Structure formats: C-alpha cells, structure tokens
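Field notebook, page 159. I keep forgetting to write these up properly, so this time I am using the form the group agreed on. The chain and the ligand, zinc ion, are recorded exactly as supplied. Prediction of the bound pose follows.
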Amino acid sequence: MLEETRRLLTANGFTEDSPGLLSHSLAHFTRPTANGAFKIAASWSAVIVEHVELGLELSRQQPCIGTIHRAFSVKSFTKALSSILAELEHLASNPDLLKCPECGERYVHLKEPTGMKKFKPFLSCGGMRVVRRSSEGMRYKDIACRGISRKIPALKEYR
Ligand SMILES: [Zn+2]
C-alpha cells in the first residue's frame, strides 16, 4: 500500500519527509493548509495493521491534533482522500473546534485503547501532566485538565 499511498499523496500536494522519532510511522508526508499554523500530516505504517493516517500537525514533536482519519486499504483511501482533506482544511481554518472546551487553551488529541483496554476513542486535552512538590517535598504527578471535546469526531476509519 505504500507505493500507491506515496503516489496519491504526492499528486495531492504532499511532500515526503523523514519519519519522526516519536512516531511508529515508516513514511511521513505533509501538506500546508490555508491557515499556515497547521499542516496536514499523513503517515503510512505497517505496525500491527498496514494503514495510512491523516491529521493536523502543529509540529513534528507533538501528536496530531483533532480528528484522525485512518484508512486501511488503497481503495478506501483513494475514495475518501478528497473529503478527508476538505474536513482537515475546515478544522485548520476553525481552530476553536480543535481547542479543549474545558480549559479553552490546549488542543485536543486522540486517545484510543491500547492492549487490553477497551473504550471508545475520544479527543482529550492531553491531560498535561505537571510534576509538583508537596509541602513534604514529595513529587507527584497531577493532571491539569481532563477536558474532553465532543465537538468533532475523534476517529474516522475507512476500510
Ligand atoms: Zn483542557
């Protein structure tokens, strides 16, 4: 699926760059959006199940923001690509939709079950962990915000 993905993305204005250290993707592509702050990122991976994943990227050091679109076949990806790009452009132009409704500051990211856990994927603030010191000098982790966004879909899959 990689060669077809590469051809399709390149034909749609994406450029390929080197895979990030933090991601499991083996091929990574980006395309600018009308709102220059975000890029549309596409990554192909064969980890567990081969797939292509698209989302909005603020920087390579952070996970994608907002709705994640995941396609598992060339056929479904080819069919969905133009609507995926339109949806991501729409989000990039309306960054309020990407913000956490609780703190109103941070962007929301996809949270999905791994391993034996089972829950419906959702978009959360990222639950930024801060390390604080108690009066006794003990360090502990606190979750600054537990905000969850229901304004936009968390995950869309195409099979
Ligand atoms: Zn928040």
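OBSERVATIONS:
- The mean pLDDT is 87.
- The longest helix spans residues 74-93.
FOLLOW-UP: compare against the apo run.
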